[in-house]
Each structure stands twice: as structure tokens, then as C-alpha cells.
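Study this fold:
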Amino acid sequence: MTPPPGTAPAPDPTGPDEADRAMEQLMRFLAILRRRWLVVAVMTVLALAGAAIAITALQPRWRASATVVLHLGGPQVLDKVKNVTEDTESRLLAYKEYYQTQREIIGSRTVAERALATLGLAQDPVFLGIADIGSEAERVARAAEVDPIERLRGMVFVEEVRGSRVLKISADYPDPQIAADIANALAEAYLAHVDASRARTGDAAKANVETERAKALAALQQAEKALSDFKQQHGISSISLADRQNVITEAIIKTTANLKDAEAESFAAGAVHEEAERLHKAGSIAGASLLPPLERRVFEDMRAEELEAEREVEQLAVKYGDKMPELQQAKKRLRVIQGRIAREEKELLAGLKARANAARKTEARLRSSLDDEKEKALGLTLLERQYRELEREAKAAAEAYELVSKRDTEIEMLGRMQSEDIEILDRATKGRAPVFPPKALLVAVALVSGLTLGALLALGVDVRDNRIRGLLDLERALAGLGLPVLGQLPLLPADARIGVSNLRAQRRQRDLHTLLFPQSLMAERVRGVRTSLGFAAGKDGLRTLVVTSPNSGEGKSSTAVNLAMSFVQAKKRVVLIDADMRRPRLHQVFEPPIGREADGLARVLAGKCTLDEALITGGDVPEGMSLLLCGEIPQNPSELLESPQTRKLLAELGERFDLVVLDTPPVLPVSDPLILARMADGVVVVARCQATTRAGLQRALATLRRSEANLLGVILNEVDARREEAGYGAGYYSYHADPKAAAPQI
């Protein structure tokens, strides 16, 4: 959800945790490398030594390079005509393909064989790699197995100069001058191969073009002859076939129009004749109206004359009677006029019939003419298909012949010109320094490999190392047990003042370090443990404390002594008991009184002496502290510790002292500490840094818990202060005691 304006976005809670975990892993890795620096150093030295041996053993080689320019301007011969083409195909292929092609040509056996013939190295022992063979027979046998051409190809490589059309031909050889000769010979062999290939291509192209030209010419002549014969056969000489088609088309159109007019005229004439004949049969002279205007006027004049004669007869009949000569003359004239009209009517019908027949004949002739024109058009259409095919063949043959003729001319011109599309830019020269073996690269690879392998080996060794190496390892070992770490006691360096070889004196000084040096880091750490024990004991307090360890040699006795003296410095009455009746050690720290060496815990529990006789005070023992040594070593320490006298002794000591500290044997080898742990108010387990294993510590703590002991925590002993991280950092969680700021915790 988007936050409201003016509100800062909430931080991602997972981010810092992941960053912290990553930083913690990095710090752990660096801590491992610091602990296992010797492994990393040894692996690095071994890798560098291997590189030095390789540099010394490998035979040096020099490199020489010649450069060749690819102009991509070679001849283009019949790029669209089948079987005639240029080898380079510069205009058909992309430059990448062209470059790959030229690279393969340079590295081919053909070019290498040509260059080898120029160099004359086919029998050279150094070139064949048999110079180091002492036996002549073996040398000859090996020479027979070597392919000189493949040997030369293996010495040469071709690379492209980025962003250009320049190829670099390089050769590696033990002799710098021969290396330059090989590079130059290969470049020259490549150019010679390209020139020979171009010449072969040009000759083949010219021969092919000449053959194609002859074929094209023959095809053109044949096509033109076939077209000419077709024109003569069908009378297509003066005008073209298209013009003849136009004339016939126009005639068809005109004849069709005339036919339509003739049909209309025939229909009209027939209709007029039929109507006139019908009127004539009906005795009507109305048929005269169907005549043309000129003829109709003549007929009308005759009709007017007849009407006038009839009026005259009627007038004379009325005036004179039937027997008057004038009347007879008028009737005779009327009969003449009527006879003439009757003859005109017959002629009229005959004329109309003749017109109708003429119109029908005209129509029939026009229809026949139209059919003839259509037949001519259909025949011409059939001829057009053949004519067009012949015309197309003639045209295609002419174009093919023209193209081949043009290409033939181009080949002839290009054959007279030398195309410099490939040239040598720089010839190879003698190298100044060998390029093999690459000393800087080998040293760098050896260094990186040594560091990497050393780091991996260090990680492997560290993973297999089950020892507790610091506070972080101890906290992880205690994670499932719920026990705290009470503190860390530092590793004390040997004191040169008392002699490094005096191990007993060095150990005694460590055991009494809190007493001898109360302001030291050791004393400060012991006081910290004392404070942690006070918190761990709770309200009931701590009266009886058992100090033990998983195994021997982990510093439990030294820790018990320093812890007892720290409580004494806090004004407590403390009694320190050496309860290790198998391998006691406190008598080496505090010398027993003379004559009382045998008095101790064993004799007190056995009833051979009293407690007061066995307790030691004064002398080397600090004020406020009493000491109960082991005394003589008994045969049955476990039975003595399980006896009721042990409980009585601890009870009595608890009443007389503020704190009873028991230095017991290790937990894992014997069962003595388990017996005392059940009787004590608390148990402290001491683990030695870089010595105690996690499995041993966990097994010891589990054993104590099964014995119902009150485990207060674990003390990590002999921690190297130089390896501790400041504060609660990502490495080992610890602190550095500042002698100026630290104050005793009492």
C-alpha cells in the first residue's frame, strides 16, 4: 500500500537481517582464512613453483604477423546466370560469411602446401618436432608419421582486426626469423591461390558465356524464322495482327448497326403492305394514307379529280336527264378516272409488296455479311494465340542473346584488367620477445589458482575441524542445551623472564596469574566468570562448586585455582580441594608441608587423618584461602567418593567456608566427577580453545545432566586475544578488556 504523502516508507525488516547474515558469513570466511593462512600460503607457493617450473621447461616461441586487406571489390561475372559465378561471391554474401570463407581458405591444406613448398621446411627436424630424438632410426620413423602440412597449419592462426577488413596471419615458431618467413609465405600463398582461382573462374566463365551466346543466337534465329513464316502463311505482312483485328471489329460493329436498321425497315415495309392489302380487300381507299408524302399527294389528286367528276355527273343528271350527251360524256370521264384509280391501287399494293421484299432481302444480306465478319474475327483470334507465342519466343530469345552478349563483353573487358581486391598490407617482421610461454599470465593464473585452491582447502580443513575455535563455536555447541558461556580466559604467552623451556614454572605462573597480576586481562576475565557464577547461582547462593572438563589437559585445574583466588580477592573464605585422585596436580602449584605430603583428601575420607591435619594454610596459599590436596593416591577413588564420609566432609567444609571449590577429574574418562557433581551446588565445565571438540563437550554435558548435576555453564579457556573480535561483532562474540577502563568486579 502506498504511504500517505509526507510519510517516509517503512524500512524493510528483512533487509538488515540479510545484510547482517551476509556480513557474518564474510567475517567467518575471513576468520577461517586467517586461522588457516598457512594452508593458503603453502598452496599459493606450490602453484607459483609449478608456474616457475613450467616457464623454465617450456620451449620459447616467437610470433610474427602479416596483415591482408579484403577490399570486397572482386569481379562480378553473370551473378544471375546458372553455372557461372565468382568464387568470392562478394556481392552475394554478407561480410561475415565472406570473412569466414577467406579465413578457411587461408587455413586450408591447399594454401599451406603452397606455402610449405616455398619455405622448404618439410624435412627440417625442428619444424617436424624431432630434433630432440637422439636415435637416427627413431627420428626417421617419427618423421614418417608427421604430416608437414598439418604441422604448418598448427603453427598458424588467422584473426580479424576488429572494426576493419584486415586479416592478421600469425605464426608461432622457436626461431623468430622463421616465424616471420612462415607468416609471409602463407600470405603470399593465399594471394597466389586467389589469383589462380580468379583466373580459372574467368576462363570457365568466358567459355560458358560463349557457349550460351551461340545457343542464344541459334534460338533467336529460329524464333524469328518461325514468326516470319507464320506471317507469310496468314498474310500478316503489311499490317500487324492487331490492326487487322481492329478493322474486323469495326466492320462487325458497322454491319451490326446496318442490320438493325434493315430489320426495322423490313418490319415497317411488311406492316405497311399488310395493312394496305387489308384495306383494299375491305373496299377502302384509306390505304393511300400509308404511302410516302409524294406518292400520297398524287393519289389524293386523282381522288379529288374523281370527286369532281362524280359531282359533275350528278349535276348533269339532275339538270338534263340520263340521255343527254353531256351526261354520257361526264359518266365516261368518271369511269376513266375510277379505272385509273383502281390501277393505281393495284400498283400501290404491288409497290408496297416490292418494298417489303426488298427490305427482307437487305436484312438477309446484312445478316449473312455479319456472320462472315464474325467468322473472320474467330479465325483471327485462333491465329492470335499462335502469333503471340511466336512473338514472345522471339522477344525472349532476343533478350537472352542481348544479356549474354553484354556479359561476354564484360568478361572480355575484365579479363584485360587486374582487380586488386586482396592485397598484403604489412609483411611480417622478426619478433623481439617470445610470446610463449606467457610468463605474466602463468604467474597470474598460478597465483589465483593457488589462492583459490588454498581457500577451498582451508575451508575443507576448517569444516572437518570439530574443535571449538572460539566463542561462536562454543555458543553453537551449547545452543540446544540452554547453558550460558560464563566467560573466556585468555591464552597467556610464555614469560621469557623465567625461561621459555621451564614448562613447570610457566604452568605455575599461569595457575597463580590472578594472584600475581591482579590487574591483568586474565584477572579481569576471572572476575567476570566470578560475577557470572553469582548470577547463575541465584538467590540460594553458591557454597560448593565442581570444576571439571570433558578430557584431560583442558585447563580445569588452572581455572579452579584462579577462580578460587578471585573469590579470595572478593573477601570470601574459600577452600580449594584437589578431588582428582587419579592424576592430582595442585601439589605442583602449592608445595605441601614437609612430612605431610601424604595427608590429603584420600586419607581424610579413609579416616586415616583429620580434616584439620589435611588442610593447608599459609605459606604459598593466599590469605583467606585453604587448600586440601589429594595426598596419597588411593586404589579405590570412586568408592571413597561415594562413601558417606564425602557428604559429611563437604557439609563440614560448607559450614567452615564461604565457598568450596573442587578440582575433579575429566568427565569422559572416569565417573568421579559425576559422583561429586550430584553433591555440589553447581558444576562448571572448562573447554579449551583449539583443543576441545564440540562432540566431546556435548557428550560431557549430556553425561553430567544424566547424573542430575546442576550445570551452571561453560568456561572457554586459553582464547588467543589476538583472534578475538572487538565487541559483539560478526566474528567471535567477545570483548577486549581495556586496562584503563576495566575495574575489578567485587
User: Anything to note?
Assistant: Residues 325-415 form the longest helix (91 residues). Residues 24-58+437-464 form one domain. The first strand starts at residue 62 and ends at 70. The chain has a mean pLDDT of 79.
